[in-house]
Amino acid sequence: MVLARRHLIYAIIPLVKIQQNLASTRQRWLNKPIQANRLQAWLIDNGSLTARLQQRFSAFAVQPIAVKHAKLIQDEAVLLHQPNYQISLIREVLLIGNHQPVVFAHSVLPSASLRGAWNGLGRLGIKPLGATLFANPKVKRTALSYKKLTPNHALYQHATRHLTQNSEVRNPPYLWARRSIFSLSCANIMVTEVFLPQLMITENV
Predict the structure, then answer these.
(1) 99: which residues sit within 8 A by CB, 6+ positions away?
(2) 107 to each of 58, 65, 104, 175, 190, how far by Cα in Å?
(3) Cα(111)–Cα(16) distance, rounded to whole angstroms?
(4) Torsion region of 191: left, alpha or beta (phi above 0 gives left; psi -120 to 50 gives alpha)
(5) Are strands 175-184 and 87-97 parallel, antiparallel or unpaired?
């Protein structure tokens, strides 16, 4: 009986490690995009995405989707050094170019960061967050990281929920995303930008 239990324990341990490795792989973000094709230039640009979209599209707008307090995605909590149960302000918007949604932006604003100079970031409305962050030369930004979001990822689902175009645009096989953390003194904010299929379609019109 004891021997059988030992064999069972030894069999379970590798399975647990495999599951942990799979979870780690799903959460892993890349240091650079791989085979992003025409989207490569958009992804690796270190400047303000808002400013670039405004230059590219004659009609640019921010469409708020949600401003809510919620728990963080696990890997977001790790990078922001927040406990998993921590409630933060989540701001989600669509960036509209020539009347089409071209980017979905998901921003995590921990409560401790919404003080001092960033006190009003939770009340931006239709104002782009990026413009505010890049306007302050004291704001530091981490290196960008990248990920292909598949349909089972929460951010993929949030990004495509409001798309009403044909099925190819509404349900792409994956979406490229990039993210970074903006810091001012001890305050940190994470911004994730998900690039929608309509960006390249609209760009070629």
Answers:
(1) 59
(2) 25, 12, 10, 17, 6
(3) 35
(4) beta
(5) unpaired
Which among 98, 121, 101 is positioned nearest to 110, based on CA atoms?
121
Cα separations (Å) of 131 from 41, 48, 121, 142?
20, 7, 11, 17
CATH architecture of 31-203: 3-Layer(aba) Sandwich (3.40)
Write out the two tokens for 136: 């302050």
Task: List the pLDDT tens digit at each of the 205 positions of the chain.
Answer: 555 555 444 444 443 443 343 344 345 899 999 889 889 999 999 999 999 999 999 999 999 999 898 888 888 988 888 887 788 889 999 999 999 999 999 999 888 887 777 777 777 888 888 878 888 888 899 999 999 999 999 999 999 987 765 545 667 889 999 999 999 887 899 999 999 998 887 665 5
The domain spans of the chain are 31-203
**Which class for 196: exposed (0-12), middle (13-18), buried (19 or more C-beta within 10 A)?**
buried
- Non-local (6+) Cβ contacts of 58 within 8 A are 98
pTM of the model: 0.81
Strand spans (E) along the chain: 60-71, 87-97, 100-110, 140-141, 145-149, 175-184, 187-195
